[in-house]
UniProtKB/TrEMBL annotation:
The chain crosses the membrane at residues 6-23, 35-53, 65-88, 100-122, 134-154, 166-185, 191-208. GO terms for biological process: proteolysis. Involved in the degradation of specific anti-sigma factors. One of its GO terms (cellular component) is plasma membrane. The lineage of its organism: Bacteria, Bacillati, Bacillota, Bacilli, Bacillales. InterPro entries: Peptidase_PrsW_arch/bac, PrsW. It is a multi-pass membrane protein. It comes from Paenibacillus crassostreae. This is Protease PrsW. Belongs to the protease PrsW family. Keywords: Cell membrane, Hydrolase, Membrane, Protease, Transmembrane, Transmembrane helix. PANTHER family: PROTEASE PRSW (PTHR36844:SF1). The keyword Metal-binding does not apply. One of its GO terms (molecular function) is peptidase activity.
């Protein structure tokens, strides 16, 4: 019974958010087998993240800034970015800008689900604590994924010079927000909620704007309109 409760409270938020962003794809939903594959890679990427973070902690120490921006957010966002770049970026199924968001959110939530499960299992967290984690770290990972995926989509499909800069943005901007998020939680003890809530509101507002923008840039949008007119 305890194991079931831990699994349910740890897994449900990630699956709910994944479903939410998956259904936001207005024109051509991604194959389920691809989404499952990337989600599983998100689960597995936890292993090298833990190994690298432990090694960096031994070498760089535990200063909050170093921990937040380099050991925590730096390693996590870099490894997720590398998986997306080498497996998804040139994949045939990556055929519209919003797909970048789908796959980046998927790998982020795969990672967040394992992280959430480990926290729930080892800390014996209450339902209230897991609810807060669903609102903060789990949704935070999803929104960092939205940012990463949005700029992946721009790099892949925007027909302008120097699109490579969008690949840089796809790593640096989620890394920056993730680092700020972690730094607040590790350095502010009494009034952290007054900083985290505005940050999460900003991330949700910006994330949903990027969802709309990515869908509006889909080359399939005009094809769908033509089909509707012809019918």
């Amino acid at each position: 019974m305890l194991l079931f409760s831990v699994i349910a409270s740890a897994v449900a938020p990630g699956l709910a958010l994944l479903t939410f962003f998956y259904l936001k794809d207005k024109y051509d939903a991604e194959p389920i087998h691809m989404v499952v594959r990337i989600f599983l890679l998100g689960l597995l990427v936890v292993i090298p993240v833990i190994i690298i973070q432990r090694g960096l902690t031994l070498g760089l120490g535990t200063h909050p800034f170093v921990q937040s921006f380099f050991i925590s957010s730096g390693v996590e966002e870099l490894l997720k970015w590398l998986v997306l770049y080498f497996i998804i970026y040139n994949h045939v199924e990556f055929d519209e800008p919003y797909d970048g968001i789908v796959y980046a959110v998927t790998i982020s939530l795969g990672f967040a689900t394992v992280e959430n499960f480990m926290y729930a299992w080892y800390s014996q967290a209450s339902i209230g604590t897991m609810f807060i984690r669903a609102l903060l770290p789990v949704s935070g990972h999803a929104l960092f994924g939205v940012i990463m995926g949005y700029y992946f989509g721009l790099a892949r499909f925007r027909k302008v010079n120097n699109t490579k800069r969008y690949l840089v943005y796809s790593l640096l901007i989620p890394w920056l927000f993730h680092g700020i998020y972690d730094l607040i939680l590790t350095t502010v003890t009494d009034y952290w909620v007054w900083l985290i809530v505005p940050l999460m509101v900003l991330l949700w507002y910006g994330g949903m704007d990027k969802v709309i923008r990515a869908n509006n840039r889909s080359p399939l949008r005009f094809q769908k309109r033509e089909e509707e007119v012809n019918t």
